[in-house]
Amino acid sequence: MSASEALGNRTARTTIAPALAPALTIQLSEAVMPDRSTIPERPSSSTPEFESRFPRRLLFAGAAAGLAGTAVVASASPAEAAPTTTAWLLGGNTGVTTTGTNFLGPTNAGAPLIFKTKADAASSLSEKMRLTPVGRLGLGVTNPTARFDTTSSGTAIQGKSTSSNSSGRGVSGSSVNGYGVEGLSNKYIGVFGQGPSAGVWGDSGLYGVVGQANTYGGRFSGGSIGSYNEGEGYGVYGTGGTTGVGVYGQGTTGVSGYCSNTSGNAISGSGGVYGVYGANASTAGVRGDSNYVGVWGQGYNYGVYGVATATAGTSFGVYGHSPNGYAVYAAGDAIVTGTLSKSAGSFKIDHPLDPDNKWLSHSFVESPDMMNVYNGNVTTDAGGTATVDLPSYFGALNRDFRYQLTVIGDFAQAVVSKEVENNSFAIRTDKPKVKVSWQVTGIRQDAYAAEHPIVVETPKSKDDAGTRLFVPKGSGAKAAQTAPPAPSAVTLTGPPAAAAKLLSPAAN
C-alpha cells in the first residue's frame, strides 16, 4: 500500500492494493467518506457507524476503492480471507468496474453464474441456482431448457395474489402465438384449479380452456363450466382420439349444458360416429331436461337411435312417457318390424265434411288371430256363375279361409260353388245376372306369423300380478310398472348460482 496526499493535519488518503483487499482489517480513528461525511472514532451507539454503513466483509479492488483514515493494517484472519471455494464463480471479473456498469458474473465466454449453499456445517456445498450464458435461469436444474426452469418434489412454482378483487392473479401467463400457461403431468393432472367460483378460467378469441392428455384430456375434478360470448363458438369443446372421448363427465351430473339463448344449444355434439355419447351403469347414459325438448336428435339417417341389450326381462330401445300427451309422436310414416301391442287403436284424420274444425277417428278391427280380410263385388253370368280372382300371393300368405256372400238388388240365392284354389274361388246363383258382394278372410301363415303367433290369453307374471295397465277411476287398483322409473325431474331455470355469477359481465 502507499500513502498519498495529506488531507489537513489529521488524515491521509491511502490507496489499497487489489491483492490485499480481500484480507484487510480496517482500523479508523476518523474516516472521511466519498460524500465528505466523517465517521467518528468513538461512536455513540453500540454498533460502530462504519460497520453499520458497510458489511463486515469488504472487497476492495481497483483504483475506485479508497478510504481516508489514520491506519490500515493487513490481517490474515480466516474470517476475512479470500474465498477458496467455487461458491461465487467470478473468474471472469478482474475488478469492480466503474460506476454505472457494475455487475455480478463471469465475463469469460460460455461460463454460467452458479449459486451454491450448504444446509449446515456438516454438509457440503450444493448448487441451488444457475444462470446460463444464454439467459436461462434454473432452480434445482443444471441444464435449464426454458427462460425459467425449476424442478421440485413438491410444489415447483407457487404464486399468490393478495388482491381483494378479481383483478389479482396468483399466476399469469401470456403468449403471442403459443400457450400462455401449459401444464403437463405424466400420471395425474396437468393443470389443477380450485376456487369458490371457477377453478380454471379461460378467456380467448378461440378456445377458453384446452386440455390434452394421453388418457383423459381437459379433465376437471369437481365441476366445469364453459362460456362463449360471441355469435359463434363453443362454451366447452372437446376432441378425442380414435377410441377416446371429446368430453367426459363423471359425478351426479357428468356433463350439464345450459344455454340462455332461446335458439341456442345447451350441449351440441358432432363426430364421425357419435355426436353425443353417454354411458352409465345404472340410470341414463344421456339425459336432457328442458321446458320444450329434453333430448333433440337430428341426423342424416337417424335422428334418434335407441338399442336395448338386455337378454332377460323387459327392455326398451326407446321409451317415452307422457301422462297427458303423446308418449311417442311420429310426424311421418312409422315402421315396426316386431309385434305392436296396444290397448286400443284408431285412425285420426281431418273430418272430410269439416276439415278445419273437426277430427274423424275410427277404431281398428281386432281379431284373436292374425286375420287378413279381402272383399269385393261380382255379377254372375247368364248361367248364374262367376269366378273371383284373388291376389297372386293369397295362397302363400293365408290359410283357413272363410267366406261371406250377400246378394244385392234381387231375391236370389248365392253359394260358393268352388273354394279357393290357385288364388281364386267360384260363386253360383239360382238366377242369372245377379250382383253378389263377397268377403274372404284368411289367417296369416308367413314365417314371422308362424314364429310369433298372437297368444290370446296369458297369465300375468309375478311382478305384474295385482296390477293393471289401465286403472279405472275410483277402482283403487294398482297401476302396472311398464318401465323402470324415470329419473327425478330437474328444473333448470338458469345455470347454478356460482356459474351465473361467473358468467355475468360484471364478474369479468
UniProtKB/TrEMBL annotation:
Residues 159-172 have a biased composition (Low complexity). Residues 145-158 have a biased composition (Polar residues). Residues 145-172 are annotated as: Disordered. It comes from the Bacteria. This is Uncharacterized protein. It comes from Subtercola boreus.
